[in-house]
Amino acid sequence: MSLGQQIAPHLPFLRRYARALTGSQVEGDRYVRAALETIVEAPDEFPRDISPRLALYRTFQAIWQTTQVAEHDAGSAEGGEAIARARLAKLAPISRQALLLTAMEGFTVEDTAYLIQKEPEEVSELVSEAISEIETQTRTRVLIIEDEPLIAMDIETIVRDMGHDVTGVAVTRDEAVALAMEDRPGLVLADIQLADDSSGIDAVKDILNEFAVPVIFITAFPERLLTGERPEPTFLITKPFQRETVKTTISQALFFDQATVPAGE
Q1: Predicted TM-score (pTM) of this structure
Q2: What's the confidence (pLDDT) of residue 92?
C-alpha cells in the first residue's frame, strides 16, 4: 500500500482537528495542505515506526508549532510584544490542543504527549487545565436543530450541564429559522438531515443570512463535510458522539467567537 493510500482515510479527521484548532476552515485546511506538501517533498522523513494516523498528525503538529513561533516573532518585530500577545490570544493554547487531541480525536494521553512533545503527566495536567477553562467560560444561549428526540435530549442535557441556556429544539428547517428569529441564540448546534427531509445546512444558511452566530454541525457522515474542496463547516461533531467531545467542541467554538469580540463589549 502506498503512503498516500495509508494516510488518505485520516485526512478528513485531520481537517476536523485543524479547523477546530484554528477556528477557521480556510486556516485549518491551509495547515493540512502544508503538512501534505511536506510529506510529498520528503516522503522518506515520514515516520514509519508508528501508525500512519499518528505520523500524519505529528507532521501537522510540527508545522503548527513552528509556524506559531515564527508568527509570534513576526508580531514582535512589527510592533513589539503587544502585537505578539494579540496574535497568541486568538490561537488555541496548548492546553486546548491537548483537549482536542484527546476528547475530539480520541488519542491516548501517551500519543498526545508524542504529538505535542510533552510528557504524559504534563498532558494530563494540560487537559485538566482546559477543562477548568471551560467551567469559567462565558455562558450563552443555544439553539439545537435535531430531529431525533433522544439525541436532542442528550445534547440539551450536555448544554445545560455546561451552564448554557437552550432557546429551543427545532426538527425542521422552517422551525429552526423561526426559533432563531424569535430568540437569537449565541450558538447553533445543527444536525444535517432533518425530519421533513429538509437540510440543517440550509437552515443554518438562512439563519446566517440574518445574523452572525457560531455553528457546530452534527453528522453521522463527517467525511462528506471534510473534503477541503468547497466551503465546509469549521466545527463538526461525529455521531455517535461522546459527551466530552460535545463539550470540547462547544467550548472551542465559543473560544473563537469570544476572541473576536472587541474588549469592553
Answers
A1: 0.89
A2: 65
